[in-house]
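re: ur question from earlier - yeah i can do the single chain one, its not a big deal. heres the input i used so u can compare w yours
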Amino acid sequence: MRVILSFVIGVLVGAGGLFAWLHQIPTEPAKSADIRTGSLPAPAPGPTLDGKLPPAPHVMPDLTELDLPLRPAVGDAATDPGANAAGAPALSETKLAMPVEGIDIAQVSDTFDQARGNARNGERRHEALDIMAPRGAKVFAAADGKLVKLFTSKPGGLTLYQFDPSEKYAYYYAHLDRYADGVQEGQMLHKGDLIGYVGSTGNADAKAPHLHFAVFELTPEKQWWQGTPVDPYPLLKP
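and the output i got, formated as tokens:
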């Protein structure tokens, strides 16, 4: 009887140990399995050395957004509807006076479309007339209009800007040796008024004094330094 009782107690003790061991086994897959299968989400970008988050990728705009509109040719009725706006006659109807003393139009070459610059800095059109003359030759206003700016620049040297009475066009005189006495910004000029003297200031060759004469159609903002170039040569012809 004592032997049987000892056997029963041993069996019960062994069963309790087995139950405790089975209770410790986890019922879900280990987390390491998730890492091996790549199921974890990608980590968020961390801060850079300066403590800031890295910037978002930069997306360049379509290059067509950077294109500038082409400016219409002045005097073309199809593209220049403002040519006959109130108070502003078509430029083709304007007759300019030769702005340099002692020079005839027959002595002037149309240099408007001549190339300037070189392969290094990019070629461009001249968009003006070079009227060769002796240094000190008188320079006259080519038309009526207001003197809006006396300016000295590296390329143009001593320059003068004049608006026509309608303020639709501007006349540009450059490389002057000096201004005529008494000229000042804001004064009204009349065709033939003395405004300066031929020189070679700016980037002009000192051995080739001349007047750089240009005409351009002003923008709606009427900025004295900006506009659409117009060939002055036909406007000077008799």
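Residues 99-236 form a domain with the Glucose Permease (Domain IIA) fold (CATH 2.70.70.10). not sure if urs matches, ping me
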